[in-house]
Amino acid sequence: MVHLKSEEEIHIIKEGAQILGKAHGEVAGLIKPGIKTSALDKVAEEFIRDHGGIPSFKNYNGSFPASLCISVNDVVVHGIPSNYELKEADVVSIDCGVYYKGYHSDSAYTYPLEGADEKVLLLLERTYESLFKGIEQARAGNRMGDVSYAIQSYVESFGYGVVRELVGHGVGKKLHEDPEVPNFGKRGKGVKLVPGMVFAIEPMINMGTKNVVQERDGWTIRTADRRPSAHFEHMVAIREDKTEVLTTHQYIEEKYSYKWRSKSR
Ligand code: MG
Ligand code: MG
Question: Residue 193 C-alpha to ligand 1 middle, in angstroms?
Answer without folding.
Answer: 18
